[in-house]
Amino acid sequence: MIFDVITIFPEMLDSPLSEGLLKKAQERGLLQVRVHNLRDYAEEPHRKTDDYPFGGGGGMIMKLDPMARAIEDLRALPPPAHTLLLSPQGPPFTQDRARGLSREARVILVCGRYEGVDERVRERFVDEEISIGDYVLTGGELPSLVVMDATARMIPGVLGCARSAEEDSFSVPLLDYPQYTRPETFRGLSVPSVLLSGDHEAIRQWRRQETLRRTAERRPDLLRRAELTEEDKTWLEEQRLGGPSAAEE
After folding, report:
1. Is 244 a catalytic residue?
2. Catalytic annotation on 96?
3. What is the pLDDT of residues 85-128, one digit of tens each?
4. Helix, strand, or coil here: 206?
5. Which residues, 6+ apart, have CB-to-CB distance to 98 below 8 Å?
């Protein structure tokens, strides 16, 4: 899979792309990330990529012409690309969307800045907008890294354990159960005895119940969307954590 990232601050992506999962995925040939400086597509002497908004108002707007040239130039390359604008006006980025993007051969990520991009970029030059949350950032570079990281995890072969992606929080969609490792006891804090029992069925049941408990307490909205078994619904009802009605609203 290939990511082409359009930004006016390419150096912001250097360190994250050279560490951890994204670095390993690139080294193994499973992922290619190409970062493009939007200023290279600006024709003005000072490589200007922003300007004042028509009609007045505070802040600056990302110019249409360099953005259009950059997107068109990259779209002309093989393989065909899906163009995505990182924007607070887009729908929320989800695990399902990360899974969908991982099936694309190539994705162009457009990083806005300042007060946003010229509206004609949205109308004509991108296929989709995505937001990583209801808050304001200074630009699309950090969101682009979030999208690449989440999407890369879904590419076959990127994770050492294929089950990890399947069992992640939001893949089900439910929050993950609590996890522990050595030492068994630290300053009076102990690992639940069931995890040390060797009883695989008891461990499976405990993990499922803790997943349900954590989701009910922290993200009941996810629980309402989850596909629950009759055993799940009965346990939730017994624990007074929402029960069948919470799952069926």
Report:
1. no
2. no
3. 999 999 999 999 999 999 999 999 999 999 999 999 999 999 99
4. helix
5. 147, 150, 151, 153, 154
